[in-house]
Amino acid sequence: MADELGVPVTLFEDVEDLKATVARLTGQLQLLAGGGEEQDEEPAGGEAAEDEGWQYPPLILLLDSPAYDDELRALTEWVEGVLVPGYLGEPAAEARWCHLWFEHTPAVARLHALWLAWQELTDPASCGYTGPSVWHRDHLDPCMRELRGPGGPFSGCTKREHDVVHRPQSLVPSAWRHEG
Q1: Given this model, what pLDDT does residue 180 score?
Q2: What is the C-alpha to C-alpha distance for residues 110 and 80, in angstroms, rounded to an integer?
Q3: Has residue 20 got a pLDDT over 90?
Q4: 9-21 as b/e: b if 16+ CB within 10 A
Q5: What is the pLDDT of residue 35?
Q6: Contacts of 94 (CB under 8 A, 6+ apart)
């Protein structure tokens, strides 16, 4: 499909995506430039704290308590305060949701990634005004398809029953652990 000038409509969408990406990268560059000035003020020992180098939150599954608990608490506020009331309709056999989602490790990992993307893409200063559209298309829709689909982590859950197939912790690769 093309407009009256013969330009493919998808080209306009691509341009908007590029604008959002440039705006986001510009925001990140400014943040990094500002962060570089703060790093000039080192502690008395002359060495910056190692944790200051870890600028963005890691995958939630890499965190140990109490950091995991704090991150899960903040994620829960977002899921229960924004995602569930704003985006989830009534659960159905083809679109399940579990009110005990935080007990499903794959759901926690996906929802955390979705939340991190939401934080970035709903800030016009870092991503422009197309960020929310990109978030819906590239993050929300695929995440909900995976979580709520027939093979997703909620597939055994109903309104009245909760079913979690727990994966033993020993199966989590040691490379997933952040040594800090």
Answers
A1: 47
A2: 15
A3: no
A4: eeeeeeeebeebe
A5: 53
A6: 149, 150
**Gap between the Cα atoms of 118 and 138, Å rounded:** 11
Amino acid at 118: W
Note the pTM of the prediction, 2 decimals: 0.62
Which amino acid appears at position 1 of this protein? M
* Separation CA 175–CA 154 (nearest Å): 27
Q: Which of 138, 115, 118 is nearest to 126 (CA)?
A: 118
Tell me how far apart the alpha carbons of residues 175 and 121 are, in angstroms, rounded to a whole number. Answer: 29
Burial 25-38 (b: 16+ CB within 10 A, else e): eebeeeeeeeeeee
Question: DSSP of 128-158, one letter per residue?
Answer: -TTHHHHHIIIIIHHHHHHHHSTTSTTTT--
Please name the residue ranges forming H helices in the chain.
9-39, 67-78, 84-87, 105-121, 124-127, 131-135, 141-148
Which residues contact residue 128 at a Cβ distance below 8 angstroms, ignoring those fewer than 6 apart?
A: 19, 20, 23, 24
Mean pLDDT of the chain: 76
